[in-house]
Amino acid sequence: MSTQDNNTDGIHTIAIYMGRLFMNDLYSDVAFLVEDQRLPAHRLVVAARCEYFRAMLYGDMAESKKHEIQLQGGAAGGFHDNPRVPLLGQASSSQNWCG
């Protein structure tokens, strides 16, 4: 087995563990409120996927101190179609959910 195969297996394993946390209140440190849904999430994962959310969650914005964040307009757009995209990072390169 090559080093590349080992790296791929490791990445796959991490993805499986991260997937178990998706939409799970266990260990979540923020929740996004989109229309009538409450979507538990992980600041680090969402911030790593999108500069907009990095600024919101780790910058000087009021939302950086909140545990529940109401999303409206463009920021909510990607959550409507598939909340896995911004919360877990499962998107094709053609999907642009990050306002």
From TrEMBL:
Q: Name one Pfam family in it.
A: BTB
UniProt name for this protein = Blast:BTB/POZ domain-containing protein 9
- Gene Ontology CC entries for this record: cytoplasm
A single GO BP: circadian behavior
Which branch of life, at top level? Eukaryota
Task: Name all BTB domain ranges.
Answer: 28-71
Q: Which InterPro entries match?
A: BTB/POZ_dom, BTB_POZ_domain_cont_9, SKP1/BTB/POZ_sf
